[in-house]
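Justification of resources, computational component.

The compute hours requested in this renewal are based largely on the per-chain cost of generating structure records like the one below. Each record pairs the submitted sequence with a full structure-token output. That output is archived, and it is also reused by downstream analysis tasks.
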Amino acid sequence: MQVYLRVAEYVWLFRRQFILSVICAVMVSMFWAVNLSIAFPIVKVLFENDSIHAYVDSEIRRYEVEIQRETEALESLRPDQIERKAVSQARLSVAQNSLAFATLIRQNALPWVPKDKFDTIIAILAILLMATLLKGMFTYFQELLVGSVVQLTVNSIRQACFRTALRLDYQTLHRIGDSSLMSRMTNDIEQMTATIRIFGVSMVREPLKAAGCIGVAFWVNWRLTLLTVTVVPLLGYMFHRFGKMLRDASHRSMQSMATIYNTISETFGASKIVMAFSGYRRHRKQFLNANRSYYEDSMKIVRLGSLIRPLTEIMALVAMFAALGPGAYLVLRNTNEMWGIQLANRPMDIAELSMLYALLLGTLDPVRRLSGCFTQIKRGMAGSERVFQLIDEKSIIPEPRKPRVMVRHSSTILFQDLSFRYQGSIDEEQQRPLALKNVTLEVKFGEVVAIVGGNGSGKSTLISLLPRFIDPTQGIVQIDGVDIREFRTLDLRSQIGLVTQETMLFNDTIYENIRYGNPNATRKQIEDAARQAHAMQFISQLPDGFDTVVG
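The structure output for this chain reads:
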């Protein structure tokens, strides 16, 4: 539930479009119910050989007779017959309201209805066409508005993910892994996008369509309609059980996709090594295993999702039969009771049963569509959990609350009694061994120092402590007698130059790549840096010079 609320917070940022889309969905559901309700006048005119005018007049006469009968019955009851009085009063109230509605129809609507039966059918079909056109128009605007909300929401979430990742420290990023970051920002967010769209379109529109049909069906015959809701607890239980299994399977599937990303990144990121040592077979096998694992996890989702729709349709049909079976009995027997149980205020006719059938069938379609969305919703929610786990990550390199102003380094750099242990993954039960233990080193201003040692001796770890890529488990690092944790990391790193073992070029111009560490550098400074790096000669030979895109 927490994940739904987190997503809703982002959606609410664009509430204007969302509210307009809900209004469009309400209009769609209204025209959906209107289209299905047209079955009643069509059956009346075609099959019962009746006109709308004659039908309304007969209904008014019937309500007048019923009111008179209930009034006389109410007056004949003794004062102590409180329960029977309440029942009779309720019947009288229903008859009076029905008479008022029928009279309103005769006075305001019937003058516009043709008296000729064929003309009536043509008018009904024209109304059906107009309602369908309006429903289509509101459907278009709803999906357009929802599409806008979805893209804006996902853009905000993707931005939040990227901001969080940029804020994290090196050790946390290493623990999460490049492949996991890529998977969460691409595959998981794509699943999330599809789910938010389903919520905005189907999860709003389809329940409203079903509610509109059920509402009109209750007006036709509330007792028979009530029988259809008996399967709702069964549907709820089924969705709960399948939902848990789908969510777990979706988590495993997304983890498998992250493994595929990792295999691809690792293989082609070290393509020179793979080629040099002919490691093709090894990496093919790794990718085959990762791909097979993803296939197996995905098939679990497919199997579960394939079961939901037919089971839902079967339950919905059972619910329809629970109402239509007794309804057919009332029509064929010309009665309002079945096995001594009152199921209608008066005997039903074929037109009322047809309308009830159309409305319940109209309810089945939204239920069927919603069941088809269930699998994607669970996959999207699993992806959302992984995305929000990333957004909630905190850097283990804290910024000082009251940072000191960092002046230009002029004295010493001191590594004092340093020990460091790398964090393991969540699954590791034991702590990793110390990478550094009780290291003390002082470097005076102007000295050139080389850190030499074997593989795994802690050279890179020691150097990583200076720009605070990592913080020591024990001990301190000082610059000019001040603990570097008292400076803002931005100020600290602005005084440190870094040359990595491998050249890294960003997908930008040579000009932007050179000034990456100092965005305020002038053109002259950039050209001087290129000369010092002996790069000016080949840069000048390029057609676009410093504006050549590399990377």
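Residues 412-493 form a domain with the Rossmann fold fold (CATH 3.40.50.300). The chain has three domains: 2-51+115-391, 412-493, 508-550.
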